[in-house]
């Protein structure tokens, strides 16, 4: 039973992908109920993973390994511990509500089935990412999140802004993916393992390695691009071009949290150094303040939430960088709180936009009477975002303040940043909760009314969860904080969460100061917005405009390089190819002493023996003579037709050599290729005068002849070197031993071509087929063009007419 449950972890990753394949079909038959049906998949995954909670809370871990590349010791390995379980439950739990929400939000859309498929695939990619134990598996799912998010952000591909946002997100996050791959390879080279569960025990080895700084840069590059840390944050607001269900999922529980997860996972292996702490703390502080200010200058509700997401990601990175027990505990609790309130608020904003026709905060007011349930959901989520008592957000804020009290001046400086950042986030929460719903009722593009049940279920459930978890501190501490923090720190952690309010504690007064500043921000937001926009106007550029300039320059550079290298002169292409071939042959031989045995020395007898030809039979000399005759015929051909036919003589000689040395299959193939080549060349050349000879300048003749001799000499010398060495028969022995039992073929050559080199052979066939189709198309086009209307004929006719009419 235990093994079947462990195997179910891999199935829980595969299930969303299967559902994604079936989503368009289900939507076709289920219609508006497809969201309810497909939401059962993530809900089932949530229930399945929740069954592991008691075991994980008890300090155990669960692993599952599926053979992938056993020859290299690489498997699809998954790990379930406190950290991965929290992320996986958040992804599947929030995901089930968002799939339900999306079914109503996009009701009637002609591509709703496709959208739900993309969402489920996105969910599966993120589940695989947080459950992966192997760094290679992590990289695969990491890239899948980038691809699926590209499809979701650009879902409304008819709009240029959506296409731009999708491309921007793909470019930035794929750069991070390359960083992750490089970092994973370096970690494997240093530690000898791909498994993160094994690597975490080798932290001292990694930190003591000379490659530590390079590894750290790679992982930070991956995390900062994915989790939108300053100055790589600009792609995330542009991702708001995606439909609101995507924004709700993207910002709360999925892709943008992948970088935070990676940093938390690698903390035992790479954390604990000054460079780790300094980079993460400084980057987190800057990102928190910059994005919080960015949220205040927005009037679009989705953009406000997007900027607060960036600020929250900076806060999470800051806490991971601090690395203390309190900071890590705050990071775990804050991640859960953020997932609850951010997904809920995005769904609230989507409901307002869907039912009122706008999400501009300056055009909204008095919606509480028309959308009371939506207002309740917004209030519940906003209270947690503010961090009031009896919410999960309150405990997160208390933990992050607790870890900085009584420290040195740097700790106090970070504490000031945290208070300021949390105050601005609280101000934004007050704006979202009050401005659209209370105050004077404003006219909206649509007559506002309450959203459907499927769109209200998510915000209400998540807003209520943020409150329920807040009034159950024992459960929150025992089942969330302790397992998650212990998994990050690699040591047991105790919970001290309690509902008791100590009015003598500086923590409560710091919280009160945060709330007070939040109210000030709310009341002065218009003045703050005006000031920030004036600053942007003076600055004149943003990271977004820098990205556009870089992309424009890259495109211009690519165009110039293409024009330089792909100029259309086929003759020059061939010269470059054969020159590179000669360099590739002679360069390694000269560098590694491969020519030493060829240079004559005093030991002439040994040198002459090395170049001694084996004894040949008369018919073998005849084949060599035929090859030489074909070579002379090609060089001395008096016309193009004779040159084409002489090439066939060369190919026939090669086919006879194959035949003489026991390879009849290769000989037959070579013969057929030669016949086909001669026939095709003859057909193609029919449009030219075959009875003429191509006259070339001496410079071209000398250059091409020298290259031909050099390449031929190089290939011959290389073969001599190979034949002079010891023959390694391991590969041929493997083919001989396995061709019958594995490939069920007694003809080893056929088995090699069809089975062992199957993809290579398929590629060769595809190339030949493509060339044949292109030639056939050219020939058919030539036959369809009337002789009198051929461009060359028209040109001649015009010249003749001009001569006749000339005075």
From TrEMBL:
Q: Where in the cell is it found?
A: Cell membrane; Membrane
Q: What is its main location?
A: membrane
Residue stretches making up the NADH-Ubiquinone oxidoreductase (complex I) chain 5 N-terminal domain: 69-115
Q: Which GO terms describe its biological process?
A: monoatomic ion transport
Q: Which InterPro entries match?
A: CPA3_Na-H_Antiporter_A, MrpA_C/MbhD, MrpA_C/MbhE, ND/Mrp_TM, Nuo/plastoQ_OxRdtase_6_NuoJ, Proton_antipo_N
Keywords carried by this UniProt record:
Antiport, Cell membrane, Ion transport, Membrane, Transmembrane, Transmembrane helix, Transport
Query: What is the source species?
Result: Devosia lucknowensis
Q: Where are the transmembrane segments?
A: 7-27, 33-53, 86-108, 115-132, 167-186, 206-225, 246-264, 276-296, 308-329, 373-397, 409-432, 453-472, 507-525, 572-598, 618-636, 641-661, 667-686, 707-727, 761-779
One molecular function GO term is: antiporter activity
Q: Which Gene3D superfamilies match?
A: NADH-ubiquinone/plastoquinone oxidoreductase chain 6, subunit NuoJ
Q: Per its UniProt record, what Pfam families does this chain match?
A: MbhD, MbhE, Proton_antipo_M, Proton_antipo_N
Q: Which residues form the MrpA C-terminal/MbhD domain?
A: 626-689
Residue ranges of the NADH:quinone oxidoreductase/Mrp antiporter transmembrane domain?
132-417
What is this protein's record name? Multisubunit sodium/proton antiporter, MrpA subunit
**Please, which domain of life does this record's source organism belong to?**
Bacteria
Q: Which GO terms describe its cellular component?
A: plasma membrane
Protein topology in the membrane: Multi-pass membrane protein
The residue ranges of the MrpA C-terminal/MbhE domain are 702-785
């Amino acid at each position: 039973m235990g093994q079947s449950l462990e195997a179910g972890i891999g199935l829980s990753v595969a299930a969303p992908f299967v559902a994604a394949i079936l989503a368009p079909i289900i939507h076709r038959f289920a219609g508006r109920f497809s969201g309810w049906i497909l939401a059962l998949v993530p809900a089932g995954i949530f229930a399945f993973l929740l069954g592991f909670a008691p075991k994980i809370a008890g300090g155990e871990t669960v692993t599952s390994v599926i053979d992938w590349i056993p020859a290299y010791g690489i498997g699809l390995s998954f790990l379930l511990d406190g950290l991965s379980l929290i992320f996986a439950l958040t992804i599947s739990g929030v995901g089930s509500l968002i799939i339900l929400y999306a079914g109503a939000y996009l009701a009637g859309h002609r591509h709703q089935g496709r959208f739900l498929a993309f969402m489920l695939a996105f969910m599966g990619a993120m589940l695989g990412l947080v459950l992966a134990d192997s760094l290679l598996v992590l990289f695969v799912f990491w890239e899948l999140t980038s691809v699926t998010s590209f499809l979701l952000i650009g879902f409304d591909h008819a709009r240029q802004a959506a296409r731009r946002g999708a491309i921007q997100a793909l470019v930035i996050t794929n750069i991070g993916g390359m960083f992750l791959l490089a970092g994973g390879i370096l970690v494997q080279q240093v530690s000898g393992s791909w498994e993160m569960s094994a690597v975490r025990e080798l932290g001292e080895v990694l930190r003591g390695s000379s490659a530590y700084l390079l590894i750290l840069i790679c992982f930070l590059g991956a995390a900062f691009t994915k989790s939108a840390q300053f100055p790589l944050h600009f792609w995330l607001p542009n991702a708001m071009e995606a439909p609101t269900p995507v924004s709700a999922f993207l910002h709360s529980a999925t892709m943008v949290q992948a970088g935070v997860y990676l940093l938390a996972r690698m903390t035992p292996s790479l954390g604990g150094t000054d460079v780790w702490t300094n980079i993460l703390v400084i980057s987190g502080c800057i990102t928190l303040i910059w994005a919080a200010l960015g949220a205040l200058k927005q009037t679009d509700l989705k953009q406000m939430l997007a900027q607060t997401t960036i600020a929250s990601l900076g806060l999470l990175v800051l806490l991971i960088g601090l690395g203390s027990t309190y900071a890590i505990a705050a990071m775990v609790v804050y991640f859960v709180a953020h997932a609850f309130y951010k997904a809920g608020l995005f769904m609230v904003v989507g409901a307002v936009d869907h039912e009122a026709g706008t999400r501009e905060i300056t055009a909204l007011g008095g919606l509480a009477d028309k959308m009371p349930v939506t207002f309740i959901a917004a209030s519940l989520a906003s209270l947690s975002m503010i961090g009031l008592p009896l919410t999960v957000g309150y405990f997160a804020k208390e933990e992050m303040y607790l870890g900085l009290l009584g420290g040195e001046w740097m700790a106090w400086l970070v504490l000031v940043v945290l208070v300021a950042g949390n105050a601005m986030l609280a101000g934004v929460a007050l704006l979202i909760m009050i401005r659209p719903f209370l105050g004077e009722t404003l006219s909206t593009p649509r007559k506002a009314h309450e959203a459907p049940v499927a769109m209200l279920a998510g915000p209400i459930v998540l807003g209520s969860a943020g409150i329920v978890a807040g009034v159950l501190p024992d459960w929150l501490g025992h089942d969330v904080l302790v397992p998650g923090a212990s998994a990050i720190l690699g040591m047991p952690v105790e919970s001290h969460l309690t509902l008791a309010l100590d009015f003598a504690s500086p923590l409560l007064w710091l919280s009160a100061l945060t709330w007070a500043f939040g109210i000030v921000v709310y009341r002065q937001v218009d003045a703050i917005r005006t000031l920030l926009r004036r600053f942007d106007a003076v600055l004149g550029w943003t990271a977004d405009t820098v990205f556009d300039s870089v992309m424009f320059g890259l495109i211009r550079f690519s165009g110039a390089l293409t024009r330089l290298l792909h100029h259309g002169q086929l003759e020059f292409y061939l010269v470059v190819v054969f020159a590179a071939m000669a360099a590739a042959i002679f360069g390694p031989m000269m560098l590694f002493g491969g020519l030493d045995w060829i240079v004559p020395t005093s030991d002439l007898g040994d040198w002459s023996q090395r170049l001694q030809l084996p004894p040949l039979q008369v018919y073998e000399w005849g084949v060599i003579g035929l090859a030489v005759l074909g070579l002379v015929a090609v060089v001395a051909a008096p016309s193009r037709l004779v040159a084409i036919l002489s090439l066939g003589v060369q190919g026939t000689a090669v086919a006879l050599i194959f035949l003489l040395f026991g390879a009849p299959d290769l000989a037959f193939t070579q013969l057929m290729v030669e016949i086909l080549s001669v026939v095709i060349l003859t057909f193609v050349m029919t449009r030219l005068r075959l009875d003429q000879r191509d006259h070339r300048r001496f410079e071209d003749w000398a250059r091409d002849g020298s290259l031909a001799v050099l390449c031929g000499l190089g290939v011959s010398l290389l073969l001599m070197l190979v034949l002079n060495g010891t023959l390694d028969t391991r590969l041929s022995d493997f083919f001989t031993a396995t061709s019958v039992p594995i490939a069920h073929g007694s003809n080893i050559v056929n088995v090699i071509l069809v089975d062992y080199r199957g993809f290579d052979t398929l590629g060769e066939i595809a190339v030949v087929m493509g060339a044949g189709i292109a030639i056939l198309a050219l020939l058919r086009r030539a036959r369809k063009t009337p002789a009198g209307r051929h461009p060359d004929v028209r040109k001649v006719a015009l010249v003749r007419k001009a001569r006749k009419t000339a005075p």
